[in-house]
Amino acid sequence: MEIGKKLKETTSLSPPLLPAARKALVVPLLLLLLIVSVAPPTASDGVRYDYRAYTECKSHPEPALYNGGILRWANKVTDFRKEDDGNYSPAFVLYNMSAATVYSFSCWVKIDGTSTAHVKAKILTLANAASQCLGTALVRNDCWSFLKGGFTLNSASETSVLYFQTASPNASTISIRSASLQPFSPEEWNQHREDRIQLNRKRFVNVHVADSNGNRLVGAKVTVHQITRDFPFGSAISRTILGNKPYQEWFNKRFNAAVFENELKWYATEPYPGKEDYTVADQLLQFVQANDAVVRGHNIFWEDPKYTPAWVKNLTGSQLHAAVSGRIESLLSRYKGDFVHWDVSNEMLHFDFYENRLGSNATVEFFNTAKRADPLATLFLNDFNVIEVCDDLSSSADSYVSRLRQLADGGVTFEGIGLEGHFSKPNIPYVRAVLDKLGTLRLPIWLTEIDISSSFDPKTQAAYLEEVLREGFAHPSVDGIMLWTAMDANASCYQMCLTNQNFSNLPAGDVVDKLLGEWQSKETLGTTNDRGSFNFSAFLGEYKLSVTYHNLTAEGTFSLAHSDDTKHINIRYNGSLGSPFSLNPLPHLVSYSTRMGPQHMALPGPGLQMVRNTKA
């Protein structure tokens, strides 16, 4: 069901639409247009982005975000007029939309005429009849569902229509409540990211220096240097990296996480029944572990029959069940404890090879068997087009949530959400909205296979990649990012390479280096103030700390993990000022503050002492 066929005369609040505009709205079924005249959108005047979202269906809609934004008065409308064919739907006509503005949209949706249906919100630019999907929701007839999305326009538009559609032939009425459209300038949108990075990826630290009597020491020199990053940021690798020292050095300089492109997939490890070969996977794992990177296990099963081993396709019933059981046992017994994640069922929102042959409970068995085999690994679903596009209803945010809940009802305890991220031109406000929705489940979200289509030139790829990476890193629900940029023997990649065969960065590689530089704390230098303290903010991770007072230096390491509290590190100067003394080695200190304050542990011997909290 989609808006169109004829357009009712506009109210006196709105100028009449041109014939070309009427023609642009011609589609199979007629729905009512609620015409809303909107003044030219302006900057949001300091409005902060609202990360709220909902995945549960509610008996009554929540109030509109941003008090409706530029649609605030339209939420007073409660009735819609009926068309000749009996169909209803609201729409909003918007004027003077800017190409330089980021629009965040949300509403609550209910449908009549069928029990459930996917509803899309779309924006139509009348001047060129171009439309784009800006958000979806899986809607019911007995409660209200939350739709959240957003859009940017390729060019300014004098007249646009924000409307709704569903593919269900039985749906007769789409009802909308608490609609909101909030504009943000690019500067505001970027500032939201920076604010979230400060809140979720960094932490305030206070170094206190005092003598043995607790008297504050002024002028102590403090040096802080980041050793490792807490946030996992990595790339796919393939057998090409083995024995290739320049490639290995290039990779290790940048990434603290890895995933094997194809080398763990069933067709690679067991191309013929009973003929297992883990040689390449073992070598890749050895390389990653030697460089202290975490590694994702991708994947146990791939639901797409195109990538199922040829010999497995011929199996049915008990033979297929024995084969899949053998696959899990062989893979996870060999690598138990080596992989932090396992993608158990890859792309099952789009394909159902195993459930189609083994029954609807097959995936439940896969997850439960994998958890027993490798209990410390985090188990993931992983799929495409969840954040990339709005039009693929198989993998909408609500479809993902619905599938998770179905499997949970079968006994699966879910632990992670994998979003591939094979982008064409990214719709960044839509990406944020989907992450908001999935984030309500409070599960780790990883962007698992990020790249940009090779249909774009390298500079455009790099620009789009930067937007996606900035959005992902800033979002509070994202726990890690992996790039799908493994290089093969011909120095080519699936869609996007970061470097050429000589390991000179391509534009996308320059973006990665720029962001890694931004997302790591620079060396911090300072001196304690008149309160004997030195304060700074730093990215989460491992740090080396050096404090010098009267030619005596104390050195140690500390970790910054996420917390709302300031981390306090206390250093004591023991002994007489100006007297020669030695300093006991302090190879590591862990110092986390609590709201109750630090609990100190004294270290023996004279000199400067790192005093650490006993609670990590």
Automatic annotation (TrEMBL):
Signal peptide residues on this chain, from the entry's feature table: 1-44
A Pfam family assignment: Glyco_hydro_10
UniProt keyword list: Carbohydrate metabolism, Hydrolase, Polysaccharide degradation, Signal
Entry superkingdom: Eukaryota
Coiled-coil residues: none
GO terms classed as biological process: polysaccharide catabolic process
Keyword Signal tagged: yes
InterPro entries: Galactose-bd-like_sf, GH, GH10, GH10_dom
Keyword Signal appears in the UniProt entry: yes
Domain annotation GH10: ranges: 218-515
UniProt record similarity statement: Belongs to the glycosyl hydrolase 10 (cellulase F) family.
Stated name of the protein: GH10 domain-containing protein
